[in-house]
Amino acid sequence: MRPSSMFVLVVLLIAVMIGFKSVYIVKETERGVLLKFGEIVNPDLEPGLHFRVPFVNAVRLFDGRVLTLDAAPQSYLTLEKKSLIVDSFVKWRVDNVEKFYTATSGDEFKAAQLLSDRVDTGLRNQFGERTVTEVVSGEREQLMKELRISLSAIAEAEFGIKVVDVRVKRIDLPQDVSESVYARMRTEREREARELRSRGKELAEGIRADADRQKTVIEAEAYREAELTRGEGDAQAARIYAEAYQRNPEFYSFHRSLQAYRESFKGSGDMLLLKPDSDFFKYLSEPTSR
After folding, report:
1. What is the pTM assigned to this prediction?
2. For residue 115, which of 52, 70, 64, 84 has the smallest C-alpha distance?
3. Which of the listed residues 8, 36, 119, 183 has the most CB atoms within 10 Å of its CB?
4. CB–CB of 130/78 below 8 Å?
5. Sign (positive/negative) of CA torsion 211, 212, 215, 220?
């Protein structure tokens, strides 16, 4: 290859490289600044195709979407000096590109650290002005709203960051406090269980006593009715016997004597010592009696 052709090829290659370095694209989801020897000349690049002077201008691009800062759980004291473990997160985005670049050099990790410190301070101040009941349920929404407004104003003024939202995900008691709370709750539940058991035993004793009383009453009434029925039966039987005896007293006496003889002489080894003229042998000695 001739030297002139080689020179033309090198020139073309350099021109392509310069052209490639002169063109850059800013996406819709990005924000950026144009620098000239490290100094900002365009603080907010619009999305699209742009040109720059190679080796003179530099472009720094940042994510322009809403980002999430999930802070580590921290311990805060309430108005009553009670410690709470708070887990929170922050939604933020770059609002002022020039200020953001100046404050953080375009480093999102550094921006997250700076914002995390401000969130920690804001939560500490908000929790320090409220009681446990207020931060847990009563004024939780108000707390997050006030924190978002104050944090957004500080972050926008210092870092060019707009805070979109601040949320408290979870509020827990410290481990030692949680254990004491659970122990107190367990003791309270055991006390309630003992009260319910004693109340149940008392009701059971009352029911059992009432059942025993009803049993005694029922048995007494049944015995009374049985005695009345038996008495009526005996009276009726006596009346029948009396009526039968009155119809033929002699026959009735004879019948009773036969029954007495049958019972007396039933055994083979039985012995009776009686006078021969006793009334017991009346029907034996006088078979022709009336």
Report:
1. 0.53
2. 70
3. 119
4. yes
5. negative
Q: Which residue has the tokens 């691009």?
A: 61
DSSP letter (8 states) at residue 37: T
- What is d(CA 288, CA 160) in angstroms, rounded to the nearest whole number? 149
Q: Which amino acid is at 33?
A: V
Residue count (the chain): 290
Number of neighbours of residue 74 by Cβ within 10 angstroms: 16
Chain position carrying tokens 């025993």: 212
**Token pair 């999930």 is at which residue?**
70
β-pair partners for 14: none
Please name the residue ranges forming H helices in 105-248: 108-128, 132-133, 140-159, 175-247
Q: What is the residue type of 110?
A: K
Burial group, residue 283, by CB count within 10 angstroms (0-12, 13-18, 19+): middle
Q: At 59, is the secondary structure helix, strand, or coil?
A: strand
CA distance 174 to 77: 11
Residue-level pLDDT at 222 = 92
Distance CA(36)–CA(44), nearest Å, equals 14
Span 248-284, pLDDT tens digits: 777 777 777 777 767 666 666 666 666 666 666 666 6
Please list the residues that pair with 74 across neighbouring strands: 86
- As a whole number of angstroms, the distance between CA 227 and CA 207 comes to 30
